[in-house]
Amino acid sequence: MDNFFNLSDEAxxxxxxxxxxxxxxxxxxxxxxxxxxxxxxGWSHNVGMGWRSDLITSDQVLILTTAGGIRAExxxxxxxxxxxxxxxxxxxxxxxxxxxxxxxxxxxxxxCSDPCDGRTQGTKGMMDSLPYRNSAAEVLGRLVRSLxxxxxxxxxxxxxxxxxxxxxxxxxxxxxxxxLVPGGVTLPPDRGEDAGSVQSIGSRFSHGEISxxxxxxxxxxxxxxxxxxxxxxxTAATSQAVAEGLGIALPHSALxxxxxxxxxxxxxxxxxxxxxxxxxxxxxxxxxxxxxxRNAMAVHAAMGGSTNLLIHLPAIAHAAGLxxxxxxxxxxxxxxxxxxxxxxxxGPNNYMTVQVFLAGGVxxxxxxxxxxDLIDLNCLTVSGNSVGKNLEVWEGSDxxxxxxxxxxxxxxxxxxDVIMSLERASEKGLARTLAFLTGNLAPDGAxxxxxxxxxxxxxDNGMYLHEGKARVFVDEESxxxxxxxxxxxxxxxxxxxxxLGRGPIGAGMPETAQITSALKxxxxxxxxxLITDGRFSGFSSGPCIGHVGPEALAGGPLAxxxxxxxxxxxxxxxxxxxxxxxxxxxxxxxxxxxHPDLRxxxxxxxxxxxxxxxxxxxGGTWGGCVPNTEEVINRLAPKILxxxxxxxx
Length: 649
Known about the structure:
Blueprint: H1 29-34, H2 37-48, E1 60-65, E2 70-71, E3 77-79, H3 89-102, E4 106-111, H4 117-120, H5 129-145, E5 150-157, H6 162-172, E6 178-182, H7 201-206, H8 212-221, H9 235-246, H10 261-279, H11 290-303, H12 309-319, H13 327-336, H14 353-358, H15 361-371, H16 387-395, H17 398-411, H18 415-418, H19 422-427, E7 434-438, E8 445-449, E9 463-473, H20 476-484, E10 496-499, H21 504-507, H22 513-521, E11 529-532, E12 544-549, E13 566-572, E14 577-583, H23 586-591, H24 606-615, H25 629-636, H26 638-642
Parallel strand pairs: 1-4, 1-5, 5-6, 7-14, 9-10, 10-11, 11-12
Antiparallel strand pairs: 2-3, 7-8, 8-12, 9-13, 13-14
């Protein structure tokens, strides 16, 4: 840095003035008299950025994205993004913007990039994952309100937290037209492993199940194409499906292959749809309704969605001012709606997300749900049509038949084996998606993804039963060390891994995907169970029980477990319910003190602690992890709010 002040000769060629722009802004007397100064000065900015002064009176539209990284013109990285999910988002945003511009509109663009849950697994960064969603939703909402001249909003997002945040921001902005464009999916490699299984290479190598070379090659090949969310039906893919189920994304737009022509055309079609919404004055509150939320829940159940949507969809409903789905609502939906989609990681054949798209995607799923009378066909969508009308058009469309034919010709896959009729799904033994558990270890409930448990662990009547000794951990680092170990400290077959202090108060409710992936893909651990007050990746597999409430640091009984305690788990996959119980004297258990090592994670950032406190006012985990604004205000300023002004009268 000694030569920092030594500049090239070119650097000293600094301009202090530039020629004034020719022409004049198309003001009228009424504008100058009545418009806010911000509106008037905004036009100066528009021209300053290069927009033609004679075109700036056209309707304005805002494009918000989660784009990340810096791409050269040829697509090569100048600076990497956090993940492939937002690497190509700028491309579809440009397509959308070009469509607006060619139709005489004035598009604006803003960005709020997002982190990658896969990248932060097992790191301190994971504590910021769920709090980020709320912060991003707030930032995106502020960006919307900071362009009050915009006639409509387009949100483009792909992955685990950025996409739910975008949907929350759109829901909050419900009084104006808006549309969601899913960021699509990455393509699987033609050899090697997918982006889910490859996350277990550390554990498998530690147990001697793969070589160093095999791990290195698998890691290199897994993310085969440059953009899009992971190839499995995790939280990113589920969020895209839920957006379409809600009606805020165009039919057959979720799970499109990022970077492909069809994906880019979805961007242009979404622009056309939003312009039509503006012209017809169709706002988001006409689309995001209690009925559309139930449709999204039905799509989630039918496709085997991520448990993280039990947090995200309530947050979206809350932002829209609607009834927030409760545990009983989810349980009832999962009992009513059969799973009819075979997609990784749910099985049995584990088709990739792009293959689900080719088989017809969410629209095809909803077509089957229509036949079962399980969705509200009257809900309006951003296409301008009702769900029922969309399905009528889809059923006989060339698009449907051609993509399904492509799937069969290119991959040899029958589309009806990916998205099935109820009869075929029953024949193949597809389990219902979620089971909701109670018991003396989970008085406020817990959830397990039944589809993630190997079918051979269930009895013929759909019952999973496991009783094992508890192996208790109060931090993820020690847990993964034991999972990877082959020494005396290793996790023994059949043990119940209990991970405490990972709820919102304890650690920001991080995911524990590196443990769950290890349990599925490491043969020595395939019969172990995980119980935690934290949450899981959408890819998580095996008997992994999360969202246990109350969390340990909020007085939950999970905090009293010790190594060697007997824990019994029962899961009825067809009834979508089950129990997790401490086995022994309940009186003695109740009298116990909490685990002596249980504590708030010492590395938890102050902003995460604040988020944890605020979200507790809105119902916590089962309420979407969002604050109740009025409750926060009442707690912070009760005297101001309750002041009796009558004395001054």
